[in-house]
UniProtKB/TrEMBL annotation:
One of its GO terms (biological process) is 2-deoxyribose 1-phosphate catabolic process. PANTHER family: DEOXYRIBOSE-PHOSPHATE ALDOLASE (PTHR10889:SF1). The keyword Cytoplasm applies. Transmembrane segments: none annotated. Keywords: Cytoplasm, Lyase, Schiff base. SUPFAM superfamilies: Aldolase (SSF51569). This is Deoxyribose-phosphate aldolase. It is found in: Cytoplasm. GO terms for molecular function: deoxyribose-phosphate aldolase activity. Catalyzes a reversible aldol reaction between acetaldehyde and D-glyceraldehyde 3-phosphate to generate 2-deoxy-D-ribose 5-phosphate. The active site is at 89 (proton donor/acceptor), 153 (schiff-base intermediate with acetaldehyde), 182 (proton donor/acceptor).
C-alpha cells in the first residue's frame, strides 16, 4: 500500500516556525504526500514552496475548538483562499453539537461549504469524533451529507481522544461514497494508518508522516 499518497503532512502547533514549514514542505514534496496542513499564517509560504509539485496546501478554520462565529470562519476561509489554500479543514461548533442545536450546525456547514465550493476548493469538516457519542457522530454525518461536503474528518488532534478505527467505520457506514473520510489525531504508526484506511479513510492527517511511511517509531513532535 502506498500510504504516502493518503497523507496530509501536518504541523499545527501555535509556536510553528518558518523553518519548520520549509522542512515540512520539503518532506511533503520528497515523499509525494497528498497535502500539507499548516497554520493559516503560513498558507502563502507553503503554497509558494510547493508550487512545482502536486502536493496540495491545506489549512484550518475555527481551530482547534470550533466555537468561533460562522462569520469569523467565513473570514478565515476567504483569507486562506486568497493566500492560496486548496483545502480547508473546518472545526464544527461543538457547543452546538453538545446542546443539540442541529439547525445552527447545519447553517454553519452549509455556509462554509457553499463559499468554499464556489471557489472550487475542498472542505473537510472536523467533527471531533473522539468526544462525541455514536448518535452525535451519525447526526453530524447526516448534516454533512445534506450539505455535500468533500470530507468528514475525525479529529483536530487536540482533544483527549483522536482517530479510531471504530469511528471511521461508523462514519463510513453513514456517508455515501462521494464523501471521503480523513482520519487524524494520534496517527503515528504505519500499522494504525493501514487500519484506518482499511476502515474507510481516504486521507490521513499526521505530523509523524515520514516515520509512518518509513515504518519507524515516531513521537508527536508537531502537536498532531
Amino acid at each position: 500500500m502506498q500510504v504516502n499518497t493518503y497523507i496530509d503532512h501536518t504541523i499545527l502547533k501555535p509556536t510553528t516556525s518558518r523553518e519548520e514549514i520549509v522542512k515540512l514542505c520539503g518532506e511533503a514534496a520528497s515523499y509525494n504526500f497528498a497535502a500539507v496542513c499548516v497554520p493559516p499564517p503560513f498558507v502563502r509560504l507553503a503554497k509558494q514552496l510547493l508550487e512545482q509539485t502536486h502536493v496540495k496546501t491545506a489549512t484550518v478554520l475555527g481551530f482547534p475548538f470550533g466555537y468561533s462565529a460562522i462569520e469569523a470562519k467565513v473570514a478565515e476561509a476567504v483569507l486562506a483562499i486568497v493566500d492560496g489554500a486548496d483545502e480547508l479543514d473546518m472545526v464544527i461548533n461543538l457547543i452546538a453539537v453538545r446542546n443539540a442545536d442541529w439547525a445552527y450546525l447545519e447553517k454553519e456547514i452549509a455556509t462554509l461549504t457553499g463559499l468554499i465550493h464556489t471557489k472550487q476548493k475542498v472542505i473537510k469538516v472536523i467533527i471531533e469524533s473522539g468526544i462525541l457519542s455514536d448518535e452525535e457522530i451519525i447526526r453530524c454525518c447526516e448534516i454533512c451529507v445534506r450539505c455535500q461536503v468533500d470530507f468528514v474528518k475525525t479529529s483536530t488532534g487536540y482533544a483527549e481522544k483522536g482517530a479510531s478505527v471504530e469511528a471511521v467505520q461508523l462514519m463510513r457506514s453513514h456517508l455515501p461514497a462521494p464523501i471521503q473520510i480523513k482520519a487524524s489525531g494520534g496517527v503515528r504508526t504505519y500499522t494504525f494508518a493501514q487500519q484506518l484506511i482499511a476502515a474507510g479513510a481516504t486521507r490521513i492527517g499526521a505530523s509523524s508522516s515520514v516515520a509512518i511511511v518509513q515504518q519507524q517509531p515516531a513521537g508527536s513532535e508537531n502537536g498532531y
